[in-house]
Amino acid sequence: MTDEIKHEWPLFEVFVRAKRGLNHVHVGSLRAADHEMALHHARDLYTRRNEGVSIWVVRSDDVASSSPEEKEAFFAPSGDKVYRHPTYYSIPDSVPHI
Amino acid sequence: MTATSITDTDEKAFTETIAKDQRVEPRDWMPEGYRRTMIRQIAQHAHSEIIGMQPEGEWITRAPSLRRKAILLAKVQDEAGHGLYLYSAAETLGADRGDLTRRLIEGRQKYSSIFNYPTLSFADVGVIGWLVDGAAICNQVPLCRSSYGPYARAMIRICKEESFHQRQGYELLMTMMRGTPAQREMVQDAVNRWWWPSLMMFGPPDDQSPNSAQSMAWKIKRHSNDELRQRFVDMSVPQAEALGVTLPDPELRWNDERGHWDFGPIDWSELKRVISGDGPCNALRIENRRRADEEGAWVREAAAAHARRRQEAGA
């Protein structure tokens, strides 16, 4: 069992830029021995029909993520800052282009 | 995952997510039963795609033209891709794909019983595309709205590609139906063999499907087995007519009152037999999968060793 785990390929997260002008978007994950193989596998797996013009692969271990349990505390600070939104400010209808 | 104690807030958040028709995402708290059901369903689905490469793969070297060979290669490659999208979704739940493959090989996890039937002629390739992939589409379109986010997203990709699978199959059959009487006979023979197993793909009837109610409540499933089966029959009848083949069911007739096609009783003992391992090709399918896994082991080990060496040299 430990032997098998030793040989197992690590997990990579795959991000694809669908076309120029768009951000890379997460599309899924795959297993590969290294980054180079991960890129080749990502091409074969996630872009068989011209779905992308550029691919990023990132070791899943290297992704830090906010935890759902801390969601309240983590995102709450932006909740009460309504003055960050344009609709907070009332401007008379007669003022154009604003 | 740390073993945190389940709080009322966790449970409430999960229930609310489901009630509001939002998606459950990988790191959210979820009931153990939900996680187990999801892993089982996604793994079973992934295994079906991987085993599903075999019945059609057998015809790649015998395809009648370069065009058909290229199409079939692309299709079988898609099945591999679908399997991998799904293993990727299963891994977000803490499953390990190597472990899932072992479970498949050891017979501890199942795959769709449809792939335990043999492909006897090239017409089978067309009928699999038309009926088997058609039934899969019926099943999978509602799964694009399944409550588990990564599964639903994988299903969206898969459904887009399945449409090519079904159309290439139907087009192949139309071509054969324009051919010789012998070719038309091959198509009818393939339809006769695949029709009933295709209907069984939707699973046991609703009153004998023990997990269905819970899966519907969790919005993993959106429609009952019988509902989807009826939808498939209604879709297939006019397609069979357009093709010029007869579906092998003497009780098939339009029911004006119901607004659906009535169809004859399904031999559930056959489904039970095939699921429990006694279908025509069960042993062969698993044996092929085991051999591929064993014969590929040295490649996986060599690639891992190479990557390790390069990393050490670079560090």
Would you mind describing this structure in some detail?
- The complex is a heterodimer of chains A (98) and B (315).
- Chain A has helices spanning 2-7, 35-46, 71-75, and strands at residues 11-17, 24-31, 54-59.
- With 98 residues, chain A is an alpha+beta fold.
- Chain A has a three-stranded antiparallel sheet with strand order 2-1-3, covered by helices on one side.
- In chain A, strand 1 (11-17) and strand 2 (24-31) form a beta hairpin.
- The termini of chain A are far apart.
- Residues 1-5 of chain A have low confidence and may be disordered.
- Chain B is an all-alpha fold.
- Chain B is 66% helix and 2% strand.
- Chain B has helices spanning 8-19, 32-51, 53-57, 66-91, 97-105, 122-140, 149-177, 181-200, 212-217, 225-243, 268-278, 282-314; strands at residues 253-255, 260-262.
- In chain B, a hairpin with a 4-residue loop joins strand 1 and strand 2 (260-262).
- The interface between A and B is medium-sized, with 21 and 30 residues.
- Chain B: GO terms for molecular function: phenylacetyl-CoA 1,2-epoxidase activity.
- Chain B: This is Phenylacetate-CoA oxygenase subunit PaaA.
- Chain A: It comes from Actinoplanes nipponensis.
- Chain A: It holds the Pfam family PaaB.
- Chain A: InterPro entries: PaaB, PaaB_sf.
